[in-house]
Amino acid sequence: MYRQIRLQPDNTRYQRIVYRGSQNEELMDYELLTVTFGVNCAPYLAIRTLFQLADDVSARWPLASKVLKQYMYVDDVLAGAHDRETAIQTRDELIEALKGAGFPLRKWTSNTTSILAGLPKEHLLKEEFLNIDDLSEAKMLGIRWNAAQDAFYFNVQHIQVRPSYSKREVLSCVAKLFDPAGWLGPIVVKAKILMQDIWLAKIDWDDSLPRNLYLRWEQFLNNYRYIGEIRVPRWIHFTPWDEIEFHGFCDASEKAYAAAVYVKIRERNSDSVPYINLLVGKTKVAPVKTISLPRLELCGALLLSELINTLLPQLEISQPVVYKWTDSTIVLSWLKKPPCSWTTFVANRVAKIEELVGSSGWNHVDSADNPADLGSRGAWHGPNWLTKEQSQWPLHEKDIAFNTELEQKTTRVHATSVQDYEDILDRFSDFSRALRVVARIFRFYKRALPTHQQTVTENQSELTTEEIRGAKALGGIPGSEKKTRVQIMAALPPERTELTRPFANTGIDFTGPFDIQFHPTVKMVRVQPKNHQNKKATNRCPVCSDNHRLVFCRELRRMEAAERLRAVLVHHHCANCLSPHHMAKTCPSPKSCDRCQQRHHSLLHVGEQGRDGGGESIVLDNDTTARRKRQPYTAKASGESSDDEVVLILDADETDLH
Length: 658
Prior knowledge:
Number of helices: 15
Number of domains: 5
Oligomer: single chain
Mean pLDDT: 78
CATH class of the largest domain: Alpha Beta
Largest sheet: 5 strands, mixed
Helix content: 25-40%
Number of strands: 16
Shape: elongated
Strand order of the largest sheet: 11-10-9-12-13
CATH architecture of the largest domain: 2-Layer Sandwich
Radius of gyration: 53 Å
Structural class: alpha+beta
Strand content: 5-15%
CATH topology of the largest domain: Nucleotidyltransferase, domain 5
């Protein structure tokens, strides 16, 4: 076949040989023009050429195109049909399609003489096929086929039993067992197990086998000759209009595990007994490292999944019905849950099974009825209950719930408890200083952590406002409320431990005394903090002690302008809205004087002609903005001497009046 495929002229220079007919001739350099044996790409080029030929002839010879794509094995054609007419038409199309490409077909063989009729005798495999008998045999893919019986069989050579065998001789005999479909699984697996034990014995290639291994090999040879008597029918009684089911079985032992796929054929709308035949099988020896039997059963289930996934795409069945059977309830329990529920070994194989054939459709079968058992129970035709109705089958997967904790993945939880928690604020006497220390710790953390190094670009020494706020929010530092509530001496009243503005709650033992400077000729005025009164009496007038606001006080309105201003300032009321708790500069009210549009209340407006008719005027030496310069307010009455002067100095921060 290779010699019938011509290369492109540009590629022939890569196939050069040196040759001469005799020693007297001169060496000549030749270029091979066709595909050559021994080149690595030769099989690919041959198969790829057939695929291209199938595409080229698909419109003219569709049957031949289908055979070239699906039933070609390098240079052998293994194909068939469900009736003679289709088979003859396929034969003729193949001959014409391959003949036009330079591939004449030879060695024809069939189980029906009418298909071979009309072909030249020299094109047949043997002339005996024109009269099919027991001698009409052919060999394909290492397996022999008898045309008369339409069955496959194995031709094995007799091996004489000798007193001793070496490891090399045993390996040579085992390698001669060619079983691509797995029909000899129960026999081949015993030879595999024996070879594994020979390797574990660590004997040399030419050393004789130990006594125990020799006896096992002798028993194998005594049964070896019966392999030639095995017959596997080629036709499984399948036609496109029949009902077909696939049943896969898997089993395992301590030495090996196996899988087998059976096909069940029943005539549609008929009560006849179905035909059950073995399609394929596969066996593997257990690993040398000892593992548990449930794990080996799971390996058998995986082997069955791989076998089904490889077989079904090769069959022309659109929606195959597949049943999967195992005698391990633990494996069924593993397949019921997601792979993440189990340990690594089990999880990997369960995930692979779900990927190949899915986790549904698995059923339980008794060990005695499992044909995949490494014994010979039902090796060729499956268990007896397969021929019965589905209601008489073993327990179905939905009829019982299997559950196991074997190989279940354990969830580890780490719990920690902190005892004797130390508050970082206990190390500092100043909350702001503690906050800055924590902010610098967070700065170091962000600059040292690789994930934050790209975001830190500045190399400044001073802390920013964002860093301080972030330290307070993310540092787990208690608020300043906790620090102020920690008392060194006796417990203080609640109104003196709340966080408020400076001088809202005062006391001699809390924030110290405050100084009052006044003129010696003026009667001393008592100054009270603005939040000194009870919360229930926040609307009590400081002038008449009645329950109303200062702006509605009749006594205040009867006062002269100077006395009115003095009362507002002494009682710490706002000169703009006459409300307590804040001063004029921080007054939220947008109102102003109705007469001069200045920032004070209309009741406090004074000028050359006061509205009280006294002709007095009030002069403020320093307006409300002067308190940022820490200058005292000085209130003077123009009608009095300059000695009648009141000066108030309050020890407060810059947000209060000075």
